Amino acid sequence: MPAFDPVRDAVLNSPVSGGLSSADAGGPRRATDLSVLLNTSPTISPPPGPSSARTNSPRQRHPPALPSRAASLANILHPTPPTRPPSPPPDQRKQSTLAYNPRRRTPANSVLVPLSPDEIAMYRTQLGQGTMRLAKRKRPLDELEIDLEDDGPRVKRSRDAGLVVEHYNSRPNVGVDQRRESPIIGMRNFNNWIKSVLISAFAHPALQSSQVVGTGRGTAGAMKGKVLDMGCGKGGDLSKWHKAKIKEYIGLDIAAISVDQAATRHTSLRPPRFEATFGALDCYVHPLTRALAPARLAQSFDVVSMQFCMHYAFESLPKARMMLENVSTWLRKGGRVVGTIPNAELLLARLDELPPDDTELSFGNSVYSIKFDDRENRPIYGHRYSFFLRDAVENVPEYVVQWEPFTQLAAEYRLYPVYKKEFHEVFEEFKDHPEFEPLLQRMKVVDGNGETDMDEDQWEAANIYIAFALEKR
């Protein structure tokens, strides 16, 4: 066998003319060349001369005979279908040994029932623990887009409003005994006394002149008046309105779970109970007609109550206007608005007292803390801070309500102030009143010896608020 010569093999297999042998005038062409595959005869002869002895060498192999070009194209255009092997006779087929025995994995009555429109609305507004956020997660966090009604327009709820909803929905609805164990029980009792004074001193006159009148079995007198509780929460003031002997009550709040708890609380009142309607609505974004049927709004309200909630409307001017529009549109002439809000003058004064190099911008005590976002920028609307109150509020965003700009805006809606005082001033004014002095003891603000559960820190926290009343003229 001749010695392996890579140069000679390259020449013998070259597709160009020439080569070691002159038997073929054009020289041999490589079998894998495209022209060879398409145009050669059915057989390819090995090259003459010495290379013929090396046909079976691992270094030089030739492909098997190829069909002509015409035959190849015919097979491509009209391929012969493959022949399937014949099926075995039926008696020779393999029979399955498993019997047909499907098993039901779920009970027969487990068909999913579609959600009702009310249930859809509830889940789309419940943003607390254990509920589902029906919002587009790809939206920016400062604009949670939530569809509150199937047939209504989409609305953008601010991230702060979402945080408020989530906080109050997640707050447990504790019983009376558990509330007594609260570390701020003295402050809670004092705040309830303040609200009772507001209702008796400033809401009662409007209720007594109301055209909404009814009677209930066992009542000493007529049940009079219609009340809108804008920001009713879990229904903490229901017993106060029950004692006021009102005829009709509507409670609205942005937190749907809290609204459900308020409705349950209403059923626990002893008869005769006032008529009550509850609904989940952001009253600072939507008109009341979105949550209330026309029949519920046919008769105007005598009193609107906004307790510890109106400051959320001051996130923006449009929200403040919508809040006032909802109040003024459905409040009768001579009707009253009673409410409680943080004292802007006190908050800003405390902010100014902070050292110039203080970057935290926070103040408070063991009961409460307030942290501002900015020291210098103080807009009328959107002046934001975070508020913490022990056993009540967990760093929820709130907004400063500057009193003078507020009353100027309210005047555009024919609402005028008739009362405004800080909580300690309300206490000084009414603590010796023949009606409200005994109430201090009944509401456990003080005991029989005149002593209170409020320590200095709770007293300071309570007095960051003011009480106010407006009248529509």
Your description of this structure?
By secondary structure, the chain is α/β, with parallel strands linked by helices. It folds into three domains: 37 residues, no CATH class; 48 residues, no CATH class; 295 residues, 3-Layer(aba) Sandwich (Rossmann fold), CATH 3.40.50.150. 32% of the residues lie in helices and 18% in strands. A seven-stranded mixed β-sheet has the order 7-6-5-8-9-15-14. Strands 10-11-12-13 form a four-stranded antiparallel β-sheet. Strand 10 and strand 11 form a beta hairpin.
Keywords:
seven-stranded mixed β-sheet, mRNA capping enzyme-domain-containing protein, 3 domains, 16 helices, 473 residues, Rossmann fold
Beta strand %: 15-25%
Number of domains: 3
Biggest pleated sheet:
7 strands, mixed
How many beta-strand segments? 15
Which radius of gyration do the C-alpha atoms yield? 43 Å
Average of pLDDT: 79
CATH architectural type of the largest domain:
3-Layer(aba) Sandwich
Give the strand line-up of the largest sheet: 7-6-5-8-9-15-14
> What would the principal axes of the Cα set say about the shape?
extended
Euclidean distance between termini CA atoms: 123 Å
Q: How much helix is in the residues? A: 25-40%
CATH class of the largest domain: Alpha Beta
The CATH superfamily of the largest domain turns out to be Vaccinia Virus protein VP39
CATH fold category name of the largest domain: Rossmann fold
Uncertain residue ranges: 17-26, 50-64, 127-155
Q: Helix/strand/pairing class, anyone?
A: alpha/beta
Number of helices: 16
Organism: Vararia minispora EC-137
Protein name: mRNA capping enzyme-domain-containing protein
